[in-house]
Write a structure and sequence with these properties.
This protein is mainly alpha-helical. The protein has helices spanning 27-30, 44-63, 82-92, 98-115, 125-137, 149-169, 206-218, 225-243, 250-253; strands spanning 9-12, 15-21, 34-38.
């Protein structure tokens, strides 16, 4: 069974070692992007106990040649609150289409309001779970209904991606697990909850099917126009064949 090692620790042969990422500002002086030191043990518990001391030794040796204590330069262009980092992320994300960007902006605005626009270093698992519970119990301002499981999943995906960006910028603890991961996972022993929204399902009428086929045929901008036409026709024909020799309720028969 493969054991997941803590971030920054790995094995070189049978002995554990630790990896230290050199700050970008001093990489030209040091000539390296990372420094690797052996922890001198094959035991993981012992390696974890030595990690902090070895990393401190690396930092001391790395910055001992500077006349003044080294402090990484932090850009003042952007702040570190939820609002400021969310705006920065969405403004720099040119790979997100406009509709997704608008949706993410709305999600992050709701989280900003819930968190009180706190510093991102204060975000933790407790806050993330509290926000998800808040979403589950708060009706949507657009529909007035509770959010569906799909909508909650989109909120989780957005926030988990947001956290990975914060980690990439070095604004949060890199050793901390993403607090927004698996927020919707059921706990052991919990039953699957049904969607509380009322579903008004009914059979499709012949007129509606014909109207849909007409719309598909007339809308040449549809990406999968032919595939959609074939799929609707096949579903309709298959349904007819299934009920051809079967007795069906009068309500369904009236809609054929």
């Amino acid at each position: 069974m493969t054991r997941t090692l803590p971030k920054g620790i790995f094995k070189r042969g049978d002995v554990y070692a630790v990896r230290f990422s050199v700050p970008t500002e001093v990489q030209p002086v040091v000539g390296k992007k990372e420094i690797i030191r052996s922890l001198g043990t094959k035991d993981l518990s012992e390696a974890l106990g030595k990690r902090k001391e070895v990393l401190e030794q690396i930092r001391n040796s790395l910055f001992s040649d500077f006349d003044e204590p080294f402090a990484p330069k932090v850009s003042n262009t952007f702040g570190s609150t939820v609002r400021e980092t969310a705006h920065r992320w969405l403004s720099e994300s040119d790979g997100i289409n406009n509709s997704t960007r608008a949706r993410y902006r709305s999600i992050l605005a709701r989280f900003e309001e819930y968190s009180g626009n706190c510093e991102v270093t204060k975000i933790n698992r407790e806050m993330a779970l509290g926000f998800m519970d808040h979403l589950k119990s708060t009706p949507s301002p657009k529909t007035g209904q509770l959010l569906s499981h799909r909508s909650l999943s989109i909120h989780q995906i957005c926030l988990a991606s947001y956290w990975r960006v914060l980690e990439h910028w070095g604004l949060v603890d890199g050793d901390m697990k993403n607090p927004f991961s698996s927020l919707l996972r059921r706990l052991a022993g919990q039953r699957r909850k049904n969607d509380p929204r009322k579903k008004n399902l009914r059979p499709v009428t012949r007129e509606e099917a014909e109207a849909l086929l007409s719309y598909i045929a007339e809308n040449g901008r549809l990406k999968y126009q032919r595939e959609m036409d074939v799929t609707v026709r096949l579903l309709w024909v298959a349904f007819i064949w299934l009920i051809r020799d079967a007795s069906i309720p009068p309500y369904f028969a009236r809609h054929l």
